[in-house]
Amino acid sequence: MTESNPLAKAEAAAAEAAVNTAAVQVALAAVELAKLAQTQQQAPAPIPAPVGSQFSTGRWIAIGLAGSVCAISLALSAIAVAVGTVAVTCCLLVLRSMWRDFAKGR
Questions:
Q1: How does DSSP classify residue 37?
Q2: 46 with 40: CB under 8 angstroms?
Q3: Is there a contact between 24 and 17 (Cβ–Cβ < 8 Å)?
Q4: What pLDDT is recorded for position 89?
Q5: What share of the chain is helix, strand, coil (3-state, %, to 5)?
Q6: What is the largest CA-CA distance in the chain?
Q7: For residue 67, how many C-alpha atoms fall within 13 Å in the half-sphere facing its CB?
């Protein structure tokens, strides 16, 4: 019989499919085995006991100084804004007065 026989072609395709199916099953088994090995290796590590964080006196002094510096900086900024506002107000009052005099024709 020749390879052109449809029955022979079907038998060859079936044999190839059986080989491919077996190969796929072996590959899937290998993947499952790898997953199993990975989960066994990744046992949860014990959580170390937390080390007590102790603030020393020096740290508290540093925190107090930093807070004081921030508060003083904020106060000086507020004073600068207030002085600027007064200066702008005075300038606008003078300009308004000059504009009224100019508008009256003086």
A1: H
A2: no
A3: no
A4: 96
A5: 80, 0, 20
A6: 126
A7: 6
- Nearest 5°: the CA angle 58, 63, 65 is 95
The identity of residue 87, as a single letter, is A
Task: Report the distance separating Cα 12 and Cα 18, nearest Å.
Answer: 10
* Segment-wise mean pLDDT, segments of 10 residues, the chain, 106 residues: 67 74 75 75 69 75 94 96 96 94 85
How many Å apart are CA 17 and CA 60, to the nearest integer? 76
Q: How many CB atoms lie within 10 A of CB 66?
A: 10
The residue written with tokens 């004081």 in the block is 68
User: Are 97 and 104 in contact, with CB atoms under 8 Å apart?
Assistant: no
Residue 65, Cα to own-chain centre: how many angstroms?
32
